[in-house]
Design brief:
AminoAcid_Transporter; 445 residues; transmembrane helix; mainly alpha; disordered N terminus; Amino acid/polyamine transporter I; AA/rel_permease1
């Protein structure tokens, strides 16, 4: 049996139901979006920060069009790698953009793992302790590894159970906080002129990160029941659920705290907002929900990344070494994913991790839309106007985000540019060597 067919039996087609897929998509989105990013979005956008989530949802809905059209035509467990390979052929662009997607997802895991640690430590006022944050983030990533090693159905089952608790719990908190505070207190009582248009636009980069979990569904397309019909539905329902939850939470946080308080609480702004609105019970309830949400987010994300890296290996887009380990490619990729996410979670703080993820994701997303527009739109029946609108929206957000980061944290822009450059260069070297070795084999024969 060759590696590819071994992987096909490993992934068990149809092992994820429509509900399981939605749970997985919302699991990744809500884990990162609300708990990790609310403080950073409010810091940039000021009192208008709930609008940032609306803009993020609109850009994501445009972006999702390419992925839904492609997934309906060719559902696959390589998702984005498959889309890029069909759009650009098996060369440097497809391989590099796929790797950027995988890296942005690994970055997302470390982001959510650090957020988990912040919430665990919040009741003890230890959330500023860098060593404890790193240790707990690492522990969660290792736990996610063991759940994933147990197989698909455990991931889907855990995701579904956690999603029900999470969505119900967050909605309860948000509605109670809005009920207690009304809509004219906290951040919403502040003058709007404080926030500039470019900062608001830049905040949309973080909002898009809050929604990008829908790509988890694309990457697991081959495993979803009746994929030609259900992949698109799963993506649509996941984004719809998330925009409702995000808006409720943004309004609840904004009505409880002013902008300076949201920024001070930053990574644990939901817990900070719960206390004035709902007292100690609300505070501990929110922390419990945050812990379950971030846990399920990391589990679902590890699942998706290891699948994607397995597919990239099988498509011969990235090098692979067993390092003497037993087992198939998928089990190795699961381990590599966890090791890289763990290193990032230990080495970087939250805002830098989120910024790197935004740069990598937006560049990859633009390459997807351009590739589909350029070469595949007729074949899959996609409208050029929607594809170009998605491309333009990404470009505007990326430009605004870069401009704001050049002022506030130029180093992270440098890291992002170097990171993207290194990915393209390494892929070029790897693919050139592979081509030369296969052509020398042909000459030998």
């Amino acid at each position: 049996m060759d590696e590819h067919s071994a992987h096909e039996t490993d992934i068990k087609k149809g092992s994820i139901s429509l509900l399981g897929g939605i749970a997985m998509g919302t699991g990744v989105m809500i884990g990162a979006g609300i708990f990790a990013l609310t403080g950073q979005i409010a810091e940039l956008a000021g009192p208008l920060f709930p609008l940032s989530f609306v803009a993020g949802a609109l850009v994501t809905a445009l972006a999702a069009y390419s992925y839904i059209k492609m997934s309906n035509a060719w559902p696959s467990s390589g998702g984005i790698a498959m889309i890029l390979q069909k759009a650009y052929g098996p060369g440097v662009v497809a391989a590099s953009a796929s790797l950027l997607m995988a890296l942005s997802m690994v970055i997302n895991e470390s982001l959510v793992a650090r957020t988990f640690a912040s919430y665990v430590l919040r009741p003890f006022d230890l959330e500023k302790n860098g060593l404890l944050i790193s240790a707990l983030a690492l522990a969660l990533i290792i736990f996610a590894f063991f759940v994933n090693a147990a197989g698909n159905r455990s991931v889907s089952g855990v995701s579904l159970f956690m999603s029900v608790i999470k969505i119900g719990g967050i909605a309860t908190f948000a509605i109670a906080a809005i009920w207690a505070n009304g809509l004219s207190s906290g951040a919403f009582a502040e003058p709007v002129s404080l926030s500039t248009a470019d900062a608001l636009l830049a905040s949309v980069a973080f909002s898009i990160l809050a929604f990008k979990g829908f790509t988890t569904i694309t990457n697991s397309g081959g495993e979803i029941v009746d994929p030609h019909r259900n992949v698109g539905r799963t993506i649509f329902y996941s984004i719809a659920i998330c925009i409702v939850i995000y808006l409720l939470v943004a309004i609840a946080v904004g009505s409880s705290l002013d902008i300076s308080e949201i920024v001070a609480a930053r990574d644990t702004s939901l817990a900070a907002a719960a206390r004035p609105a709902l007292g100690d019970i609300g505070f501990y309830f929110t922390i419990a929900i945050a812990i379950s949400a971030t846990t399920s987010g990391v589990i679902a994300s590890v699942f998706a990344v290891s699948r994607m890296l397995t597919m990239l290996t099988e498509m011969k887009m990235i090098p692979h070494s067993h390092f003497g380990m037993k087992g198939g490619i998928r089990s190795h990729m699961l381990l590599y994913t966890v090791v890289i996410a763990g290193m990032l979670a230990v080495l970087f703080d939250l805002s830098r991790i989120a910024s790197l993820g935004a740069f990598f994701y937006l560049v990859m997303d633009m390459l997807v839309h351009w590739g589909v527009f350029r070469g595949l739109r007729e074949e899959i029946g996609a409208r050029a106007s929607v594809l170009l609108a998605a491309l333009a929206a990404d470009a505007v957000v990326l430009a605004a985000f870069t401009a704001v980061k050049l002022q506030s944290d130029p180093a992270v822009v440098v890291y992002a540019v170097i990171g993207i450059g290194v990915v393209f260069m390494l892929e070029w070297v790897f693919l050139s060597r592979r081509r030369s070795s296969s052509s020398s084999d042909e000459h030998a024969h």
